[in-house]
Amino acid sequence: MITLTAFRWVPPFAQGMVRDLRVRWALEEARLPYREHLIGTKDQASPEYRTLQPFGQVPAIEEDGLKLFESGAIVLEIAERGTALLPPDAQGRARARVWTLAALNTLEPPIMQLASLDIFHVDQPWAAPARPTAEQAVCKRLDELAAWLGQREYLEDRFTVGDLMMSSVLRILHNTPLVTDRPALQAYRDRCEARPAFAKALADQLRPFAEFEAARAAANRTTG
Ligand SMILES: N[C@@H](CCC(=O)N[C@@H](CS)C(=O)NCC(=O)O)C(=O)O
């Protein structure tokens, strides 16, 4: 069975955003059972964990000695195991892989640049002056994506791993109006996130955070 490594707890701003969500979602779509391995910051630095994820990040998976990291590589591996996330024909499969990489290589870098300014560097004096250029770069890609989508429901003629990854990347912009300002993109993201597999994956990511916070509150009550 697949073991998925994820964080035991993250601060509220990151809850529902950690990249193991993509993997959980893919596993749910593919109906592959998995178990969780939840880690904290000390585990991230451990030599043992570095054999699974050389950069100490999540997600990572392990199955029968196969160790995989990088959310894109993991969801593609899961997708390859059936037709839930990839169409049966070779061309359709290739197109779905293209969109997965477009999400990761063309959309996610400028989106992360903007998110970093808004979240991680918001107190730096250089963040505000850098923001307009960063936002412009994101808007360019969003407009191009919206133009491609047009009246389409999905990036190709059915939901694939490409949509799973693209909508996951758009999700990073949840604290900006950049997706909601573009009705076609908002409808697309909503359509992808309305899938029962997404709801299950999100609930499963959030559950340990809530349990961790409840345990911490109980411990504080005992010691306080
Ligand atoms: N390119 C990697 C990025 C992984 C990544 O940035 N993971 C974040 C959580 S979403 C993380 O582990 N951050 C902690 C750190 O970098 O130490 C992937 O897609 O898997």
Poorly predicted segments: none
Instruction: Enumerate the strands of the largest sheet in spatial order, edge to edge or round the barrel.
Output: 2-1-3-4
Q: Bound compounds, please?
A: glutathione
Relative strand content: 5-15%
pLDDT averaged over residues: 97
Structural class determined from secondary elements: alpha+beta
Largest sheet: 4 strands, mixed
Radius of gyration: 18 Å
**Order of helical and strand elements:** EHEHHEEHHHHHH
The total count of strands amounts to 4
CATH top level class name of the largest domain = Mainly Alpha
**What portion of residues is helical?**
55-70%
Number of domains: 2
What is the straight-line distance between the termini?
42 Å
Give me the CATH fold name of the largest domain.
Answer: Glutathione S-transferase Yfyf (Class Pi), Chain A, domain 2
Question: Architecture of the largest domain in CATH?
Answer: Up-down Bundle
Walkthrough of the structure:
- This protein folds into two domains: 2-83, 3-Layer(aba) Sandwich (Glutaredoxin), CATH 3.40.30.10; 90-193, Glutathione S-transferase Yfyf (Class Pi), Chain A, domain 2 (Up-down Bundle), CATH 1.20.1050.10.
- Helices cover 60% and strands 9% of the residues.
- It has helices spanning 20-29, 41-45, 47-52, 71-79, 90-120, 127-149, 161-171, 183-193, 196-223; strands at 2-7, 34-39, 60-63, 66-69.
- A four-stranded mixed beta sheet has the order 2-1-3-4.
- Strand 1, helix 1 and strand 2 (34-39) form a beta-alpha-beta unit.
- The termini are far apart.
- The structure holds glutathione.
- Glutathione binds at residues 18-19, 44, 56-59, 70-72.
